[in-house]
Amino acid sequence: MSEPATGDSNEPPANRATREATLADGMVLTVALSAVPDRFDADALVGRALEGAARELALALAAGGSEPEPATSYEGIVGRSAPMRALFRMLERLRGSNATVLITGENGTGKELVARAIHRQSPRANRRFVAANCSAFNDNLLESELFGHKRGAFTGAVSDKPGLFEVADGGTFFLDEVGDMSPGMQVKLLRVLQEGVFFPVGATEPRKVDVRIIAATNRDLPTLVAQGSFREDLYYRLHVVALRVPSLRERREDIPLLVDHFLAQQRERTGRTKLLSRRALERLLAHDWPGNVRELENEIERMWVLSGDETLLDEELLSPAVRDAGSRPPSTAPAALPAEAGASEPVAAGVPLAEALASYERRLITAAVQRAGGNLDRAADELRIGRRQLVRRIRELGVPMPVVDEGRTSGQ
Ligand SMILES: Nc1ncnc2c1ncn2[C@@H]1O[C@H](COP(=O)(O)OP(=O)(O)OP(=O)(O)O)[C@@H](O)[C@H]1O
Ligand SMILES: [Mg+2]
């Protein structure tokens, strides 16, 4: 503790008297004695208060920060938004459980990541996690894949082969795209869920296994049940605990976190450091992400690869769909991109990047000006650039124009 100090000489003396405490790392706490009511022995009281505050602050600093930061991930699942925190709370409640879980969510939202986290937190954590994609095979192959087959069961079955259910025995079986299973396979899966038994293809004796099932689908199972293409009894067997993984559109505030996460992954892979420009981030924030986190992951990897030796990942490295999304206001955005700006357009080899970008920009501006009926203010708004910048780019790029006068633009 230091002696009472005096402050600025222009202030009245009562306001100038202060007490200070210096913390171990050099940080100084200061209290104005004028803040202490007369009836207290100000010096002693403030001294004690400062010591207490100094101790608490020193402890907080030693613990790694004075303010606890909200967690930004759970078991490697990155997110801090309200829907992700709700998901993390559910995962926390599932810790230690063996219950069947049904995970729903759009493509690329992280359903498999969630399934693996559930497995790691289960009593089966040191047994196997086996994943099978139910939509990747036709019925015969899927049956043999899941349940195995006996030698000679069909042409090419030269020896007994265990199915994935047997491989997963004692562990967790992740059934991906379960909504795509045929009615015949649904019956067989129901039997495993009810009795833990199945028949390998060509076998007469049933096999018994102990597997925990986690199923996932991007389809709306209640609708499939209503349509009669998904068995209701199987739905209820799978639906013991249901988790929905939110789309990226529902949690845009997680985009910067995810971007950092994927940039860090690239850093680790390549041993290099690159930064994302603010404008590129703005575009990433404005995009709708139909492919969710997987699409964002691919976008970052793509930018990284295309950037070559550049350390700044700027917006020109974004794929056309993402760049375009960032240049129109979401409310008035047309449902589809102009056909020529589509990401699926075949890419010509050997075109210099600057030329390709200029050509794309020319088409984008032409389309915006046409949509705005030649009104440059509206077109500039849509492209989210200033009117003067738009006029300059129109001249530089030679964009064909409707009738234009210097002040206002008339329609065609
Ligand atoms: N919250 C997240 N944090 C970090 N990475 C994520 C997150 N969500 C998804 N990913 C990553 O995105 C990719 C897609 O995730 P995953 O395969 O789990 O999604 P999915 O919902 O199973 O997709 P699909 O429906 O296409 O099978 C993976 O590389 C995964 O690591
Ligand atoms: Mg998946």
Descriptors:
single chain; 412 residues; alpha/beta; Rossmann fold; Helicase, Ruva Protein, domain 3; 4 domains; 5-stranded parallel sheet; two-stranded antiparallel sheet; 16 helices; 15 strands; disordered N terminus; disordered C terminus; binds adenosine-5'-triphosphate; binds magnesium ion
Task: Give an overview of the whole structure.
It is built from 16 helices and 15 strands. With 412 residues, it is an alpha/beta fold. Helix 10 (255-270) crosses helix 12 (292-306). The chain is flat, with a radius of gyration of 31 Å. A 5-stranded parallel beta sheet has the order 6-9-12-5-13. It has a two-stranded antiparallel sheet with strand order 1-2. Strands 3-4 form a two-stranded antiparallel sheet. The protein has helices at residues 13-16, 42-62, 82-94, 111-120, 139-147, 164-167, 183-195, 221-227, 232-238, 255-270, 278-286, 292-306, 320-326, 353-371, 376-383, 387-397; strands at 18-22, 28-32, 73-74, 77-78, 101-104, 129-133, 148-149, 161-162, 172-176, 197-198, 207-208, 212-217, 241-244, 275-276, 312-313. The chain is 42% helix and 12% strand. The site of magnesium ion has 3 residues, from helix 4. The site of adenosine-5'-triphosphate (ATP) has 16 residues, from strand 4, helix 4 and helix 12.
Show the helix and strand layout.
Layout: H1 13-16, E1 18-22, E2 28-32, H2 42-62, E3 73-74, E4 77-78, H3 82-94, E5 101-104, H4 111-120, E6 129-133, H5 139-147, E7 148-149, E8 161-162, H6 164-167, E9 172-176, H7 183-195, E10 197-198, E11 207-208, E12 212-217, H8 221-227, H9 232-238, E13 241-244, H10 255-270, E14 275-276, H11 278-286, H12 292-306, E15 312-313, H13 320-326, H14 353-371, H15 376-383, H16 387-397
Parallel strand pairs: 5-12, 5-13, 6-9, 9-12, 14-15
Antiparallel strand pairs: 1-2, 3-4, 7-8, 10-11
Helix pairs in contact: 7-9, 10-12, 11-13, 14-15, 14-16, 15-16
Residues 77-79, 105, 107-113, 218, 261, 293-294, 297 line the site of adenosine-5'-triphosphate.
